[in-house]
Design goal:
The protein contains six helices and three strands; from the N terminus they run H-E-E-H-H-E-H-H-H. A three-stranded mixed β-sheet has the order 1-2-3, covered by helices on one side. Helix 2 (76-85) packs antiparallel against helix 3 and helix 5 (201-222) packs antiparallel against helix 6 (226-247). The chain has helices at residues 8-16, 76-85, 92-106, 166-194, 201-222, 226-247; strands at residues 23-27, 54-58, 114-117. By secondary structure, it is mainly alpha-helical. Mean pLDDT is 77; it is low at 131-153. The chain has two domains: 8-133, Rossmann fold; 166-247, Substrate Binding Domain Of Dnak, Chain:A, Domain 2, CATH 1.20.1270.
Amino acid sequence: MRYDASSASKLHDRVAGTGVALNVIVLDACRNNGFRTARSAGAGLAAMNAARGSFIAFSTAPGQIASDNPRGRNGLFTSYFLEALKLPGLKLDDVFNRVREQVYQASDQKQLAWTSSSVIGDFRFNRTGSDRDLVFDPTSEAKPAPVPVATGRQTVARPSRIDEGPESDRYLKLSARANSVLDGLDQLRQEQARIGASLRGDMAGASERMTAYMDKADRALRDGNAAGAVRSMDSAEREVEKLEKFLGM
């Protein structure tokens, strides 16, 4: 959970901070909390408030649990959501209103899809019915920019094409940890800048070495050099652990 889970609130803050006119987050993840304690006795996900220009969709209401639809390929919410995306001309609210109604009926009125929206203007997922026209913004024909793994000053890339295997799996998990570290360092730098301070030199150096080692591991994996990738990841992980300890992660 520590290394592989993602904070939905942090994701929302990041995309909302890009300045893009429309940000859509769809969360089909309302499940039991396997780490429940006396202080978190509720089920499902908590509510989230959408920042300006953001639309957040939940597969069920806050504090409730969504159906996994065990006999289908996808969960109940996602199944109807994928169907609605194919319908041309529907506005953003129309899509999710349609999904909400279908999920509610299919679940015998037990699951009520939930949305939080602060969107200004009209947007359509599928203007013409073409699969290439999804997430259409009527104010611009520009193609959306690729989303990096993290939004700090640096990111560690996740290779788009690497062979499956223990080395590749380790790289993906280590890159997630490294990007969390880079994001934490970027936040720390911003806080320090407000008071005229700067990041400790040894930690800045550790960050640069970590990124360099991960780049070497990436190249080694692409070249099929598993042994070289392991050596680079061993070195990178030592820097990651050092930075995690520094950041209290």
